[in-house]
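A protein record pairs a chain with a discrete description of its three-dimensional fold. The shape at a given residue is found from the number at the same position. Here is what such a record looks like in full:
>
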Amino acid sequence: MTALVLALTGAGLILAVLAWVPKAGATLEIVLSGLMLACLIAAGLVLLYGHGVVGWDERWWNVLLLLAGGLAVTGGGPLTTSVLALADRGNTRAQSTQKAGEVLRGGALIGSLERGAIFAALVAGWPEGLAIVLAIKGLARYPELRSPDQPASVTPQAVAERFIIGTFTSVLWSVTCAGFLLSH
């Protein structure tokens, strides 16, 4: 069971890295993100069936810690842009969350830092850290969300939608990756 969980998590991490290659929102990125998510779900089911990480040798638990941490940070970016691309289907250019990315610059880097901080806080047994990370992000992004100086090509609703969808997807991904290590 340990080898299967590690293999699935490692495969998910490889898919996460590969998902950064295609253009954001491209069909290939969406497919790779879906496969990465499938690996995470499969590993979770194996852990659920096998009663979690209880009784694992510490070295294998540490390997899972590194793989899951890498997956949390790396996999959240492509998954988030895939979810945003799926949310954009049928929207006009001004309503596009992709276009709103011009207003919310630095999202990929901020998201990676956010996922790393959330993962670390949860694995360290400090769930309050999640609230602190989200509060800092919300306060830091508030001026951009409410700025009247946004380009005419983007609606304020698209900017807010991108922030909400992106944050929720990113946080849920990181929490799920941390959940592996807390499964006892």
